[in-house]
Design goal:
Layout lengths: L2 H26 L10 E6 L2 E4 L5 H20 L12 E2 L8 H14 L2 E2 H21 L3 H4 L3 H14 L1 H4 L23 H10 L1 E5 L7 H14 L6 H10 L4 H4 L25 H10 L1 E5 L3 H4 L1 H14 L3
Parallel strand pairs: 3-4
Antiparallel strand pairs: 1-2, 5-6
Helix pairs in contact: 1-2, 4-14, 6-14, 8-14, 9-10, 9-12
Length: 315
């Protein structure tokens, strides 16, 4: 925050507090010219107001809140760039990456500052760290059969993975379905854990060497591989150009999990199965990114999530 806006907030906040004090003191005095307890000189619908003072208990509470307001502003951040006497903050502000967050956390601890988010993370790690450590000692296949471990893995999945794969893990356009046992990089426990730990970057290059007609022919042939009814002449023409695709998808078009190249014969599509969607993929390419989670969740938690994901495809 710039110095100008910091000063503006400080002046405005203090001015309001002073204004409230003045208003309260003004209401504590009798400026009506009518003694307390006597009737006022106006009425409405037969109701006459009596000149009564504000209740004492109400006044005391109001003064307490005003005093607390000044105390709070002195101890905690709230007045512009003033950080407060306690050095407390809700979180490390203005971080833009995991690396910046880690650096800010380390700097705050070194300076002896109280960062509420970091404190809660430490408390959670102290309480639940041993639980995850114990679970990580067990094989993923075994955890997938443990009802309590599955519940823990599900909660971790909902917190961290459901944004892309959905709460039911069935994915969406560009995000794989994790329940159908169709895997780009393999569905073994080790492969799933590796995907979560290190992330994946699936690249389908744009086939810019083909013109529009050839793209249509190639897309038609790709559609025919999964047994769909297509124009046989277009498919025949597209088959000749499919040789370019076999480097990744294989001669049998059943994909290559080492490269993350999908099986084109099973009629399961990540970006859509329509003629237009396939042509778009061929013409423009695709770049799917699965972020690495090892520095965010740690291996113990990833081990538990892996068991949950693995179990989804085994049902």
């Amino acid at each position: 925050m710039s110095s100008f806006w910091s000063a503006w907030i400080i002046v405005l906040t203090l001015a309001f507090l002073v204004g409230i004090i003045w208003l309260l003191r003004w209401n504590m005095s009798n400026y009506t010219g009518i003694k307390e307890g006597e009737l006022m000189d106006h009425e409405f619908d037969g109701i006459v107001e009596i000149n009564n003072p504000l209740p004492r208990w109400w006044m005391i509470l109001f003064w307490i809140t005003i005093v607390w307001g000044f105390v709070y502003l002195a101890l905690y951040p709230g007045l512009g760039n003033f950080a407060g006497l306690l050095g407390w903050s809700s979180s490390n502000q203005d971080v833009r990456s995991l690396e910046e967050s880690q650096q800010a956390t380390a700097a705050a601890r070194e300076a002896g500052l109280i960062v509420e988010y970091d404190r809660q993370v430490d408390q959670a790690e102290e309480k639940f760290g041993p639980v995850f450590a114990a679970l990580s000692e067990r094989p993923i296949e075994e955890l997938a059969q443990d009802e309590e471990a599955v519940k823990i893995g599900q909660r971790l999945f909902l917190q961290n993975c459901a944004q892309c794969h959905g709460s039911n893990a069935m994915g969406g356009k560009g995000f794989p379905n994790l329940t159908d046992n169709d895997w780009l990089y393999g569905g073994s426990p080790a492969a799933i854990k590796h995907s979560l730990m290190e992330g994946r970057n699936g690249v389908m290059p744009a086939q810019s060497q083909f013109n529009d007609q050839q793209i249509t022919e190639l897309a038609t042939y790709v559609m025919s591989l999964s047994g769909r009814k297509v124009d046989p002449e277009l498919a025949k023409a597209g088959k000749a150009n499919f040789m370019v695709c076999t480097a990744c998808h294989g001669q049998d078009a059943k994909g290559n999990q080492a490269l993350g190249a999908p099986n084109l014969t099973d009629n399961i599509w990540l970006y859509g199965s329509s003629q237009e969607a396939i042509e778009e993929t061929l013409r423009n390419g695709r770049n799917g990114v699965m972020p690495a989670w090892k520095d965010i969740l740690g291996e113990d938690k990833i081990h538990v999530i892996s068991s949950y994901v693995y179990g989804l495809s085994q049902e």
